[in-house]
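Batch job 17 of 40 flagged for manual review because the log was empty.
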Amino acid sequence: MVLGEMNKKVIKNVIKLLTMVILMGTVVIWIMMPTSTYKKIWLKSMRAKLGKSIYFGKPGVNLLVYMFPMILLAFLGCIYLHLKKQTTVNQFNSGGVERKKRDKFGALKRPMLVKGLGIVTVTEVMFLTMFMSLLLWSLANYFYYTFVTITPQTVPIDGDNLWQARLDSIAVRLGLTGNICLGFLFYPVSRGSSLLAAVGLTSESSTRYHIWLGHLVMTLLTSHGLCYCIYWISTNQVSQMLEWDRTGISHLAGEITLVAGLVMWATTFPAIRRRFFEVFFYTHYLYIVFMHFFVFHVGISYALISFPGFYIFIVDRFLRFLQSRNNVKLVSARVLPCETVELNFSKTPMLMYSPTSILFVNIPSISKLQWHPFTIISSSKLEPKKLSVMIKSQGKWSTKLNHMLASSDQIDHLAVSVEGPYGPASTDYLRHQSLVMVSGGSGITPFISIIRDLLYVSSTSACKIPKITLICAFKTSSDLSMLNLILPVSTDISSYVDIQIKAFVTREKVSTCNMNIIKTLCFKPHSSDQPISPILGPNSWLWLATILSSSFVIFIIIIAIISRYHINPIDQSSKKYTSAYTSLIYLLAISISVVATSTVAMLCNKKSYYNKKDQNIDDILSPLMIESSPGQLLPEFTNIHYGERPNLNKLLVGVKGSSVGVLVCGPRKMREEVAKICYFGSAKNLQFESISFSW
């Protein structure tokens, strides 16, 4: 057993070393790409060796230099996460040396900026600075090349004016820089990506990176398009806007790309996204049009520079599509007085997830196309056969669901599809002596899952559980009913964890609601409904590594065969092969390889696990076991304060302990206030962590 753990540790260290080497090489390539050295020496040399291959041709260079390293990184990340997943819970309490190491790295998670971009940590500022430096470096090199090479002496007398020639060159360079941002755009929204999980990120926490990158992409590409429009108008070449070059750059395809991007961009601004979420949601499907016509615009060879992130996204998206095809078993629901619904699903015991994970839910009877993320409040360890989410009425979709369940007792079945769960690869709350959880409204949901997980650890192991203080602010007394969801069943929680709940009702002086009025609905799942299960089985990271590697190999083989026997013979003749057809072949090859490998992986896992192990899943849940005793927690562990807001500074600074983990989930102002107290106040023992869901 010890030898096995040592071997795993060695493999993990080797993976880390390989990852660092690949990352350093990739960074060097990105830094050198805008320089003349790269174009005239490096690229020329690589094309001389690889670009004349009868199997890949010119695109082969970018396949090797840009796409292969990132696919390899994602593959290594999967292997690393599989090994990490096997870490036992006892390793959380592994001693002082390991905790000191964590504390050193914990300094990189300190908030450095609190306003403007939101709460931004030291690590995020470092990477943001490096990325912006890369963009500025690229623009500086491109613009320097423009103004050095395009001078009054080099401009033909009967050609463009000097400013027109420079504008043409600048427009190209803005497009090249926009492509750099596009290369990173899809990584943050690949929900099941190993690259995010390996560095401790989740898809919901990475959404803002996607937003920042999206603004940069559209700013640069819009500038690129405007510069060309001005250039064509000034040179009387307006007809160029409709040109679709057979072997070169297609202007019309670029304009379609830009229009699709602008429509998506217009709906992303908060004022529109929050008020017209459905418009934002549906227009974002234009990413398919955007990426396809982008490839037609620049050609597949250049598009491969920004394609690795999109390739990983395609794999993730198709796996989500496969999972969402099945209806899941919804066993029961509870309707709380605060217009909040708890949905309880059947799940397979092999589905494991970390606290604070989220689940995307689709209910066709409300909307066939809309998917909404909700925090999971159950613990996969404490409740191995049940998964629960809490849904607060805050928009049209959730309000319709609440009204549907609250107004009828005749519903015996509700068709539901899900995607997920998605969450952190691991959590380590046991390293703290105390945990303070600060929530506003429905922000309490991730803390319910944490409390349940800690309750399981305390009841099944010798690990010392940190003292828990839950500070929750609600608008009305009816919202206090959410506290009844902290425990899944009637449990003597005081025997396992030291917990104190401080609840604040801000808009009422006294209680105006009976919190014990909870409506319970029991459903009868159809025979075709399935328990929620991991789409790739218990060894999902290994299967994802298999899909990434095998699909990429199949893609390479398909391209090699088609290039050798179809594209290359035509290119060797006087008639060049059409660029759009080449791009289409590459896109089809990627689609076929991803669809084939993902489908086979899903079917293998379905045959191996679900049919054999989950055949008696129908009777795993009893509605009577789902309900906790309403109001059980309130008198024993809870202090309720009416008509006041929590004095967060006073409540946090007074917490004792050398290491106090402070978790906050709620409105932006609350998160910023807690961040200021933790790292700009007098208390030195507070370690801040923000849980923000910004889908």
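Reviewer: the log was empty due to a logging misconfiguration, but the result itself is present. Residues 88-102, 612-633 have pLDDT under 50 and may be disordered. Unflagging and moving on to job 18.
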